[in-house]
Structures are given as C-alpha cells and as structure tokens.
Amino acid sequence: MDPPPRLDKALARDVPGDAALSRTRLARLITEGQVRVNGTVVTDPKARVAEDDEIAITVPVAEDSHILPEDIALDILHEDADLLVVNKPAGMVVHPAPGTPGGTLVNALLHHFGGELSGVGGQKRPGIVHRIDKDTSGLLVVAKSDAAHHGLAGQFAKHTAQRRYLALCHGAPEASDPRLRGLRGVDFEPGNILRIASHLNRHRTDRQKQAVCWAGGRHAVTRARTLQRFGGPAACALLECWLETGRTHQIRVHMAYAGHGLIGDPVYGAGRKLAQKALPPAGAEMAQRFDRQALHAASLGFDHPVSGEALAFEAPLPADMTALIAALTPGGDDSTVA
C-alpha cells in the first residue's frame, strides 16, 4: 500500500511500534534534522514522500534534563525497569512550572532515579502520563522509558486505565433527589450510582478554573457512589468516584455542578458551609477548617506497557482524611454505609 503523502504521517504509520516513538516525538525529530529521505535531511513534517523512498531516522542519545534533582522522600508502591507507581502526598506539585520551579514530584523522581533513566522524549526525565492536582493525594504511574511512556499514554488516551478516587462532599447524592433528576447531564445508574456527563472548558472569567459547558471544550464523564453518610439528614458523605475520562479538575468541577462540592475545595467549594447541628461538633469544626479538597486517588489499574501484565494498586486514605472521617463518626454511630 502506498504510504501517506506527508512525511510525518508516513512515519506515524510505518515506524515499528517497539520503537516507541510518538507522533509528537517523530515530528520533533523531523524539525531537528534527524530524518533523511533518500539521503537528504528533511525538516518539514509536511514534506511529500512516495513509494520506495528510503527514510532513515536518527534517535539521539537522551540529554540530561534541565530540571534539578532534589532529595525528597517518596512513597513508592512499585518500581521496575520501565515504570514506577508512587503515592503522592497532598501539597506536592507534579511537574515544575513558572510558579513552582522546585519541590515537585519530578524533582524528587530525578534524584531517586539517578542515572538510571533511559530517557523520555529525548531527555533523561520521568514520563508523566497523567497528573493529579497539587492538593489531591494518591496514586500516579510514571514512565522510565519511551517504550513505557508510549504504551501508558495510549491506555490513558483510550480510557482503559482504571482510576478510582475517594472524596468527602457536601451532602449525599441520592437518586430520589428531584433536583438532581432535573439537572442537565446528570442521571443515576443502578446501585444509586451518580453519572455526570458534560463538556469541560476553561471558565470564561477565571482562567485558572474549569467549567461545565455543552458546546466546545472536552467531553467528560464522572461516576460516583455514596459509601458513607454523616449526619442526619446527610450533611456530608464519603464518595467513591471513578473517571471514564480524565480532564483537569474533573471530579471537583462535576461534583460542584451537581451541588455536592468537595469539602475543603478552595476553588469550587468556596463559601459552602456544613450544617453544624447535624454533625458531631469536633467533626463539623474539622470539616470547616479542612484546608484542601478532600480528594484521594485511591486505586490505579493498567496493563504493563512492556510485559502486558495486568497491574493494580491501592493507596490508603491519608492521615488528614482519615482523621476527618473519624471526627465525623465518633464510635461509628453517626454513619450508614451504602
């Protein structure tokens, strides 16, 4: 079969999968002068190619990253030659950015790996396939090589990786709630499972926030199930949430849209107050003072990108969320399990 007429598309189709070169990486190699067509360097990804053209790609040795390694303790659940699974604490940013040049998970990983990284995207750096917010705790998988990065990225793009979160929210979503039944994009599946489907896009006036929309943006689907209710009537609840898609702030935005914003969320739950009389005083006070969104990435499952083995990991609730639940349910008398 004739190759696609464009160089970048021809390479994306014909480069062997075990080379682990993504479309983005291939395009970069072309513009960097690392691709020759019939012996001539070609730097235009849109250059024309034809049947019987000989294309050679040079993949340079990975360069050292400009990000500095930092000796920061990590809670590592699994590590092998291709990837690492880490339980990130709340308060840690995943990747350096202009406002947070250090103290990030990537800085810590570079120190942990030392010189063992084979390189991702042409640099000796860990491959961040997915992220969780600074003040969300829990599980992340990180690639140590291009092959692992390529394989993991494909699973997350196809939404075949399983991610489940635990969250504490205002109120308790119930299928019997007529307000939720009438809310666009919200329905309930068997087992009192809340399903929220919408598009998400940047907020019109606050570019740091995401917002529910129905045109433009990116499709997002969140499901949630109530595990435990606190107070009577339920003033707040422990939820199990899982993602069909993985968008920025997705759980936080969707739960706030449904009227069940997360406890402690400074962005999407600002101004929300708990019904003090419905909860034990210590629990109500602790919840009101909780200084981050009560959200934890509790489980993560995926196929190993090299061996194909099915892997699954769990991380227990962090101390702050555990203490809050204990304060809300002294002796276990004020809760019911769904």
Uncertain regions spanning at least 5 consecutive residues = 333-338
Shape: elongated
Radius of gyration: 23 Å
User: Strand tally, please?
Assistant: 18
Q: Figure out the total of helices.
A: 8
- Biggest β-sheet description: 13 strands, mixed
Task: Quickly give the structural class.
Answer: alpha+beta
Description:
This protein has 8 helices and 18 strands. The protein has helices at 7-14, 23-31, 105-113, 146-157, 178-181, 250-257, 281-289, 319-328, and strands at residues 35-37, 40-41, 55-57, 63-64, 76-79, 83-88, 123-124, 127-128, 137-143, 162-170, 186-189, 193-202, 210-213, 218-230, 236-243, 295-303, 310-314, 335-337. It is elongated. The chain starts with 6 loop residues before the first helix and ends with a strand. Residues 333-338 have low confidence and may be disordered.
